[in-house]
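Researcher: Re-running this chain for the archive, since the previous output was lost when a drive failed. Same request as before.
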Amino acid sequence: MRRLQTALTLRLTVLCLASTFAGACGGSGKGDDTGEPSEASTDGSPAADSTSPVRDSAPSDTSVSEDTTGTSVSEASTSSDGAPPADAESDGTAAGGGSSDGAPEASMGAGDGGDGGEGAVGDGGAVGDGGAVGDGGDGGPGPAVVSNIVVDQFGYRLSDPKVAIVRNPVTGFDSSPYTPGSAYALVNAASGQTVVQGPPVTWNGGATDPSSGDQAWSFDFSSVATSGTYYVLDEAHSFRSASFQIANDAYANTLVQAVRSFYYQRDGIAKVTPYAVAPWTDNTAHPQDAQCTAFEALEAGAPDAEASVDLTGGWFDAADQNKYTIWAASNVVQLLRAYTESPATFAGTQGDSYDIPESGNGIPDIVDEASWGLAWLERMQQPGGSVLTLVGNWNGTQTTNGANPPSSDTAPCVYGPASTSASYSAAAAFAYGAIVLQQWNSSLAASLQSKAVAAWNWAQSNPDVTFDNEADVLGTYDQELDTNGRLEKEVQAAVFLFELTGSSSYRAVIDANYAELESSFSPSRIEQLDTVVEYARLPSATPAVASAIATAFESNVLGAAVAGMVSSDPYRAYIPTYDFTGYLGSNQAKAGQGLMFWDLASLQTASSSDGGEEDATVADAAANPDATVTPSGDGGTAGDAGPAVETPTSYALGYLHYFHGVNPLALVYLTNMSSYGATKSLTVTFSSWFQSTPPPGFVVAGANPGYDWDYCCTYAASSPYACGGANSGATSLCGTSPPSPPYGQPPQKSYLDFNANWPLDSWEVSEANDAYMAQYVRLVSKFAQ
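Model: Regenerated structure tokens:
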């Protein structure tokens, strides 16, 4: 989420050089959407003359290699006009070609993507009677796989709603006219037998969705509840979706790999077999963190060796290898919530065999992983109770922020001073850790409680101690919070401490300030909303406050601005904005919105068990989290692209399906999941370490229409404002125009699977981050039982 560095000497070599930029990375210039939107007929199908050829490129069709210096160099697998070269099959997946009638050729279904790559993109043709966007084959039987029929590539549980989305890409880089057939079928992949058949249902009267640039239809096969492998078939054109499972454990392997991604993010431990797999093994990173020096002393030119502290461990925050207390504490809480909200998912041997070093110790591995983060937070706490802000490694000018491999970074360790926000954040993590770990280690739980109280007391006595690192000298991003942010962290700590101790002093803080945490129902505020829901569910919460929290939460989430808008997105994963300009893609918000619906179900269930009175809609859902709910208001287009009935659970599932391929890119937003069921997953992330391809299970920033190259690219090379200064040569790193995609695309198509540092800044879309990963883990855990 933060850029690795800005010093030119430390920048990675940019993926797309000027000679290839016009193809995969740059298009023909700013705002090039590959043509105007097609005229649509009254039934939503493209007009017959919508046949202009377009580039058939895909955001994930980018390869990365390493140059002789070890810095990241990539060349997109496209020719100068953006089309895949004829031999773009080096990963063992067959590339498809468009036939004269617009249907992809059968060879597109032949590849299996290999262990680390996905299928090449086929040429879907541009014929008005059914051209399709080609996709790499999934190795399964039957007709060609195309990106016009999107499904959850891992599958669906037996009793859950099951809806495929059929898409005609009207605008965007993949614009290619497509008219769906009149009948779709769910086909058993093993037998070839049709199980369910029916017509596609038009979304919103055939309108083009502005967030995706697509027209859409839905095909509901929720009635099928027999385990097996299936695909959705367009019978008229004889092409199909990716294969997927219908099984109650459809997401089990996905959860395991997502949790395991945190193991690769661990600092201060060797990544060795059998826990790490080549090429992602490494020696111990940053052993020098055992003697960490205060940044302020270093900055003053008088580091005090006797004042060094041991700050080893923790997680790399993202692609940068710094460690931040506030964010690490939040991730600990999210992982622990995943366990406490769905303990059955992690029960028994299955939950204790994720192939991390602690596996087999009798404690669920997700709790072990959270404990790794807690142990580092304990080291960050100082004798008086205060908690330090962040840790990095100093190269003499700034923190190094990343190395390939991490163990090669020998720069000395520096830390930022204690702050109020860091101390409240750690207090919350310590208190929740004590609650969860009590059943396995009562002495550790007691120690964590003492640390939580000490951090709380220090922050109460020092309410306005801040540390800003806005210049990106120590770390890559300013982690400090404003006054409201510190108040929200105070309330979070108070909630967990009240739950842990029952002390009325913490309850008084909550009761006086809870409304601040419900001041917005933006999905980016899921941590604040989680906090008040946690309090409202406690039997000893002040009844009037708990009731007010529940009422506000239910009315807002079921209201026109949230549940009422879900159907306004044909992919059933609506968020109110994609405007995360400058640093953040949309995937964290997608996970947050899904979790908000899950919070609604859990809150209603708690209210029902307490015998509280609720309105009819809420009471139905409270009695059964899978009961039908009706959004208030008419914020969206009702019922034309989703399941026949909606519940809090089905809403939450829509966001999980988005991560798993039900999106305009037909892309699984997790890395290298082809060995675990995905046909088309990410193979590249923004990273200094994973320059070839990352381990499975990482979640990246995601679609970001605010993406742009650095502004210095807009100046002539001779300008003093040019990248690197006048005539520095760095302007050549820009190419001729911003990479498109992600630049200049409909919001949900604003993504490219690439690894480029300054000045192309791929971290705005393709950087993995512990926060995205933790929230996704928590969401998928609800459905991985």
